[in-house]
Design brief:
This protein is mainly α. The chain is 54% helix and 11% strand. Strands 1-2 form a two-stranded antiparallel sheet.
């Protein structure tokens, strides 16, 4: 099971830079980069809420689920 973070796609659609988003949601650029590059093991709901508010989107616009089990 894989949760894919499509934050970079949504940021491109909204034409917002990493540094601008990081300052809007009070997150370091390093932590934002971890999220963007699918390296995060978890995300706080408060952070997800702040991202959605800043990008005017829904959590489903940023997070998707892909089944790794292709044997089904």
């Amino acid at each position: 099971m894989s949760i894919i973070v499509n934050l970079d796609v949504m940021m491109a659609k909204r034409k917002i830079s990493s540094s601008e988003l990081a300052s809007k949601i009070d997150l370091t650029q390093a932590n934002l980069s971890i999220l963007k590059n699918n390296k995060a093991k978890a995300i706080r709901f408060s952070t997800l809420e702040a991202i959605c508010k800043a990008l005017c989107c829904q959590p489903g616009d940023i997070l998707t689920y892909e089944d790794d089990d292709i044997s089904k």
